[in-house]
Amino acid sequence: RTLSSLGSLAGKRVLVRCDLNVPLKDGVITDDGRIRASLPTLNALLDQGARVVVMSHLGRPDGAPEAKYSLEPAAIRLGELLGKPVAFATDTVGESATATVSTLADGQIAVLENLRFNPGETSKDEAERGAFAAQLAELGDVLVSDGFGVVHRKQASVYDLAKLVPSAAGLLIETELDVLDRLTENPERPYTVVLGGSKVSDKLGVISHLLPRVDTILVGGGMVFTFLAAQGYKVGASLLEVDQLDTVRGYISDAEARGVKIILPTDIVMASKFGADAEHVVAPADALEDTAFGATGMGLDIGPETGKAFAEQIKASKTVFWNGPAGVFEIPAFAEGTRAIAQALTEVDGLSVVGGGDSAAAVRILGFADDQFGHISTGGGASLEFLEGKRLPGLEVLGW
Ligand code: 3PG
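# 3-phosphoglyceric acid complex -> structure
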């Protein structure tokens, strides 16, 4: 169900589930991409004269208020981007929320405090979630679900609430699904997927689903050391998921059998420790312990030779999906691999998609502009689960 299925929303109280889960450093938003991505739907509703009530989570608080997880900075930023006042309720379903919503006039907007300050939002207990969803339902006449980044979660505002009031997907979800559909249905070849980030176990599902569909998988980031170790290489004190070694070996042989190339780094930036002041040196991937740091050295980025090879492969592709930074991009000495990948994606003659909160933040923090890429997805886990072919509860409940 799309926005238009809800009919005219003028004068109606419209609950909008957004994903305003933005990275914050000392209370300052470091990447407002998810707030900007929510603007088309919010503007469309405000232009119709709806009374807009924005709901979101931020971080993973433990079901109780915690100042560092307040949504207020996001509400302030939203007001700046919309160019109009945004009221902020200091609770989610309490007195402040009720009062704030009741004073909204047509074409006005409010943001509720972090949904996850209430245990009912993320509860595994259906009755507890349902009770919280019922309280949220009191605050609106309809629900527009537009938090693409959170549609893989079976949570009160994403799932249960959609069953209690008339509901439909917003414009961001429509856009995200259009692009992700292009990655799953007849993508133009060659199709290259670039995987990074720290946890192999998080990406296993997507690797097994992608193997039959892609031509090449480039592996970087912390997860690469499990791949290198699976090849028999020593990796020093780098991230390693020993319990995944056999699975990774299975992928490597499955890829060979299918004619899919899994390309691993040939060089790595090895550091004396994890930190901005670490000493570092480039080492061949098969000799990571042969540096001055020996077995205590840790790999924090792909090396320059690998960055170049990955970039060539990416630029020769017609479809590229990238999830997960190649190194610790927050530290300049370990950002070059991620930069090389991002730069190459901007030069793809075809569809380039950056997926995931970390990769999206990385490209913006490294100074790239959103319009240099085909699409920057607001979903990390959500886009991966979509590509894995999983049914996502927040979409299923809307009839998608
Ligand atoms: C994300 O950052 O991927 C989404 O906002 C979902 O957050 P979560 O992983 O804490 O549910």
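# post-check
Residues 19, 21, 60, 149-150, 153, 357, 380-381 surround 3-phosphoglyceric acid (CB under 6 Å).
The two ends are 7 Å apart (CA to CA).
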